[in-house]
Design brief:
There is one protein chain. With 271 residues, this protein is α+β, with helices and mostly antiparallel strands. The protein folds into 2 domains: 164 residues, Alpha-Beta Complex (tt1808, chain A), CATH 3.90.1570; 90 residues, no CATH class. It is built from 8 helices and 7 strands; from the N terminus they run αααβββαββββαααα. Strands 1, 2, 3, 4, 5, 6 and 7 form a 7-stranded mixed β-sheet that branches. Strand 2 and strand 3 form a beta hairpin. The longest helix has 26 residues.
Length: 271
């Protein structure tokens, strides 16, 4: 069987599974198993072994995509993510959805390799920019069953999308500017965590306030002119920046000075 015929069969089976699943249950959750099967089968057609993980948290962006896709046996060899929406919800303009979806998309748009789909329409994004064509299956997911199919004009584009998605590789970081751009979200996350900790310590006994004591000591010794109202936010910012860039410097000291690629900062996986 030729590759195109195998993809047609996969889409047809996907349609049958969706039709049955959508008879009951929440629509987004109902099609998850069908999407998982489609991706695993499609990877198999391409000679790859795909392993899927549900709702892997990405702390740096405060998001939890529905699926993380791993190729091969290495546990951290995640190549991309899939975000599912209900078949009744449009995915054409992800930033223009309701407020909750817009906030979620702000984090999703930072991922280097993402498929955004409602089962009917499939779009791939890289760092918030669409990559390749928009794919729309012909036939309604609720009723088409095995008659669901790819338009002939989209068959090549859908295969190309999956080849590009499964074949994603991290781009080596070759300049400190790129390094800073990649670690900035982590720095912001640490800052927010410190700020939340300071808020939590406000109700604790004095001997249980390590960050509060540290903030007071540093502000008195190093930044005596800081306004009281700004001290908490200022400490969180400076602490996060100091820790983050100290780790960068430590890693840089251990790297090969003759290697022009900052390999230790290459993004081994989107998560």
């Amino acid at each position: 069987m030729q590759r195109k015929d195998r993809f047609r069969r996969i889409v047809s089976e996907f349609g049958a599974t969706c039709k049955q699943a959508l008879l009951h249950g929440q629509k987004e959750a109902a099609i998850r198993r069908a999407v998982e099967t489609l991706l695993v089968d499609a990877a198999g057609v391409l000679g790859l072994q795909a392993v899927l993980h549900a709702e892997v948290a990405i702390a740096a962006h405060r998001i939890r995509p529905d699926l993380a896709v791993r190729i091969g046996k290495l546990p951290r060899n995640i190549v991309g993510y899939v975000e599912l929406k209900s078949p009744d919800k449009s995915v054409i303009h992800p930033g223009g959805l309701n407020q909750r979806d817009r906030r979620q998309w702000e984090g999703m748009a930072k991922l280097p390799n993402l498929i955004y789909t409602n089962g009917q329409t499939w779009i791939m994004y890289r760092s918030g920019r669409q990559y390749g064509d928009t794919i729309h299956f012909e036939g309604d997911l609720h009723s088409a069953g095995t008659r669901l199919r790819l338009p002939t004009a989209s068959e090549t584009a859908f295969e190309a999308m999956l080849v590009a998605f499964f074949g994603w590789r991290p781009k080596p970081l070759t300049s400190m500017r790129e390094v800073v751009a990649h670690v900035a979200p982590l720095c912001a996350l640490l800052r927010d965590a410190v700020h939340d900790r300071l808020d939590a310590e406000a109700s604790l006994p004095r001997h249980q306030r390590p960050f509060t004591d540290l903030a007071s000591t540093l502000e008195v010794d190093l930044f005596p002119t800081t306004d009281d109202r700004d001290k908490r936010a200022t400490f969180a910012d400076r602490y996060a920046q100091s820790v983050t860039f100290a780790l960068l410097l430590a890693g840089s000291d251990n790297s090969d000075s003759n290697d022009k690629t900052l390999s230790i900062f290459s993004v081994a996986s989107p998560g």
